[in-house]
Known about the structure:
Elements: H1 14-20, E1 22-27, H2 34-45, H3 49-62, E2 64-70, H4 72-84, E3 88-92
Antiparallel strand pairs: 1-2, 1-3
Helix pairs in contact: 2-3
Amino acid sequence: MNMVVEESKPISGQKNKQKLQNQxxxxxxxxxxxxxxxxxxxxxxxxxxxxxxxxxxxTHHKGKCVVxxxxxxxxxxxxxxxxxxxxxxxxxx
Length: 93
């Protein structure tokens, strides 16, 4: 039996755009409640409740989670708001 396997190649420039995408990463802590983290993600990152809860669980279990991607200037503002609420976050690119 012969099988044909096709290799998927990114569209020109697509790979570079993905690498340049800035990410807002929420870091786990042992201070803030789960509900507080969910509330913060809903208010600051504009997550729906399910998305916020999933990100909070990932952060809790893995130590960090990408909670938003996009323009660096906007992510810097969101990071500042998250930090002002007593949570920890970083911007990766």
